Amino acid sequence: MPKExxxxxxxxxxxxEIPEKMALNNNNNNVNNNNSANNNRAEFTLTASDLLKDxxxxxxxxxxxxxxxxxxxxxxxTLLPLFDNSPDLKQYAFIRIIINxxxxxxxxxxxxxxxxxxxxNIKGILTNNFGVQQTYHQLYQEALSLKSNSVSxxxxxxxxxxxxxxxxxxxxxxxxxEFNPKINEPVIFNTFLNNIDTNLASVIINKNIENLxxxxxxxxxxxxxxDKNSNxxxxxxxxFNNRNKFNHFTKxxxxxxxxxxxxxxxxxxxxxx
Length: 273
Known about the structure:
By secondary structure, the chain is mainly alpha-helical. The chain has ten helices and two strands. Strands 1-2 form a two-stranded antiparallel sheet. Helix 1 runs parallel beside helix 3, helix 6 (136-144) packs antiparallel against helix 7 and helix 7 (151-170) packs antiparallel against helix 8. The model is unreliable at 15-32 and 242-271 (pLDDT under 50).
């Protein structure tokens, strides 16, 4: 009887565990209570070949506008932990696949690190060279000084600034907590609120909205402003306060026990942030 052919390394399954809530369960009523301890987690198998194919699907990053540095880093950060059960295979995928996905200007920058660079070092230098270049304070200053001809345009500009603030924080190894997304969102939201027509601001306040996108969508749905894809001009769409300061519409001002937490933010540029 011929010997069974031994599976190659790439065909051997790697076993991963996922929470029960993520597992497919088409027959919840037939769960055996006696085996509940074993049912707390569900297993699935993924071969090394599958993982290597996933690595090959990562887009090339060349340091240009075709593919954002943040997207490339997120893809690699998501993939690499899947190799943790096989350190040798992880190192192979990193050197032979992921490193080779870095091309063009990005490759020129990476070469300055020399051989044997870690992913953390590469991620850092790519972020420094191709990530958000403005400081946190510069982005806040830009938000405060924005001018626009319509509420829709104003919203989209603020949305871009908010995205940059949050992306900068995401890839900032220092993680300065005064610029985390939970702070950035209300600051940019209040900037929006304080510079649109007071009637629009009143609608948002009365509906207890605290999110920039939700505020904008509410105004569009109520037909108070036009959507960016619409040619219809609405009553308040071109009305701005343009005061560029926090005023009585900042919701925290009405809380006697809490002073406006945005009033003491220093928007002057400095070398640290």
